[in-house]
Amino acid sequence: MAEQADLQTLLRFLTQDAKVSLADAMRVVKDLHKAGLNSAETIAKSQSKELRTILHDEKLSKQVYNAAKRVSKKRGAEPASSTTWKRPRAAAVQEEQTQRRTLEESLSLPGLETDEDVIQRTVLFTNRAPVVLAFAVALLKYTMPEQPQSSRLSLAQAVVSLNSRSKAVSLGLQGSKSTEDEGWGEGQPMVKIMGREVKVLKRWESTSVETVGGDADKATDEDFASECNTTPALWGLDLEALRSLNNPTSPKNSTTTNCGLPIHTPQSARDYLLKSFVPKPDTDQANKPSKKAAGSVAEMKKKGLGRLLGALDLLYASWAGVLTRDELDQKAWHWYVHVRPDVPNGVAGWGAKGELKLKEILELRRTEPQDICSQEN
Questions:
Q1: Low-confidence ranges of the chain (pLDDT < 50)
Q2: What is the rounded distance in angstroms from the CA atom of residue 294 to the CA atom of residue 273?
């Protein structure tokens, strides 16, 4: 994990401070790391000849070297007094906490439906991709509970993207060479979700909302050191967008992080969930819109999502106590395949909608083994 952090720090220096293009930065970052040039400070102390040998470009070498000198000089000029340093850092901590709380609150999803009779009667009309998204978001609550809502949404959207890409290739709608085959995302850490290998980026937040609270002025070096030893929050990397960013003919409409790498945004994942699940009116009298509620389609979709997430939570909760996190992750994909909407085969089924019967999700729950003694009695 330390090596990945070094690579991300170096990549951020190259793209932000040295103004190197993302394509060039991705090309040279591992070679610089192997040579021990992991930061602006080490690059500033290196020999210009050594840098030219690694970068194979005299102009680029001067650009990186000058940026390293400038950054190192600026950092060296910063006051070392702890009395002048702690308060600005503490103020930054407090501001970061507020921003993170605001972000997480803005990403809330409808409350989980807990009435099993209501869930049993519900049939949703939707296509397959948002069902994968819902399965993954609900799963991560149990397999990666340390991740905040924003990270779960981003990681789940990455799963959808990988799955859609794979399906498109199998249907002949896209070329067979994947971003992974071309080396995009090389050197980035990876997590496995529903059987998919998701390239991730450690988020650049330095303190957690949960671990640093109360009086922010009391934050010290120990607080930050403690944070480094906790599991980092993650973003799901958007490798297709990363490839597009380096294609001059592609539109530049992706969201990037402060180290220049594009991610799957949690906002887009949430929006996709909120608009994708329409309860069929004939499956539940409560779903039939009244004259007053006829235009409240968004509310009906929220209700459908709450019921789907409620069903998935009941499913995962029933198995969480007997399966390991890895086992639960492996099961999730098979459960999705079992209940996903039926659509036409081949290209005709691409993006097509069908029925998702929530009672089938409930039927996958683990049932408690019957008491043999009670049966004999």
A1: 80-86, 206-229, 248-253, 286, 291, 294-295, 371-377
A2: 21
- pTM for the complete prediction? 0.71
71-80 long-range Cβ contacts below 8 angstroms, 24+ apart: 71/13, 71/17, 71/40, 71/44, 72/40, 72/41, 72/44, 75/40, 75/41
Token reading at 178? 């994947």
Structure tokens at 372: 């043999």
Predicted pLDDT of residue 374: 46
Torsion of CA 52, 53, 56, 59, to 10 degrees: 0
List the end-to-end C-alpha distance of the chain, in Å, as a whole number: 57
Which strand (E) or helix (H) includes residue 279? strand 278-279
**C-alpha span between 305 and 109 (Å, rounded):** 8
Report the relative pairing of strands 123-127 and 353-357 from DSSP bridges: antiparallel
| Tokens representing residue 307 in the block | 């019921």
CA dist list (Å): 254 to 132, 201, 251, 268, 322 = 22, 15, 9, 11, 40
Cα separation, 224 vs 228, whole angstroms = 7
Task: State how far the alpha carbon of 188 is from the alpha carbons of 5, 180, 236, in Å.
Answer: 9, 11, 11
